[in-house]
Amino acid sequence: MKQEIFLPDDYSPAEDEPFMNDRQLEYFRRKLLNWKAELLAGSRDTIEALQDGTRNIPDVTDRASEETDRALELRTRDRARKLVGKIDAALRRIDDGEFGYCMKTGDPISLKRLNARPIATMTLEAQERHERREKVHRDD
After folding, report:
1. What radius of gyration, in Å, describes the C-alpha atoms of the chain?
2. Among candidates 123, 118, 131, 129, which has minimal Cα distance to 33?
3. I need a labelling partner for 44 at 20 to 30 A (CA). Which of 20, 81, 119, 139 fits?
4. Is 99 within 8 Å of 26 (Cβ atoms)?
5. How far apart are CA 85 and CA 119, in angstroms?
């Protein structure tokens, strides 16, 4: 079993330490796990609200408004579900030793980018190239 890494509460990865050392990996693992827990708690809350909120609303306008709200909430939860999948993939990359490195170039992804978007799989430059290529080759 893996030894637990001590992280002070105020720890933040720094550029002057070795890239993706044990402390940085543990920092991102915890960040991802906390994010996932928040998303799953939100999903549970949505499910409970949808189950409890089923009621017969006689006014057609009010009913339409409630249906629109439900549809929006379900779309939001679907995005969260997809995000949980990306979080799980990032956690697997941590376990595999691939986290923090661009899947296209193999270069390190900046700590600033990873801190803002820990599910990032490409450096900012590679992501921009990818998005430009997608935009050019998109079938309209």
Report:
1. 20
2. 118
3. 119
4. no
5. 10
Burial grade of 117 (CB within 10 A; 0-12, 13-18, 19 or more): middle
CA distance 92 to 103: 14
Q: Tens of pLDDT along the chain (140 residues)?
A: 467 788 888 899 999 999 999 999 999 999 999 999 999 998 887 777 776 666 677 778 877 887 888 888 888 888 999 999 999 999 999 999 999 999 999 999 999 999 999 999 999 999 999 999 888 876 55
3-state SS assignment for residue 55: coil
Structure tokens at 91: 């956690």
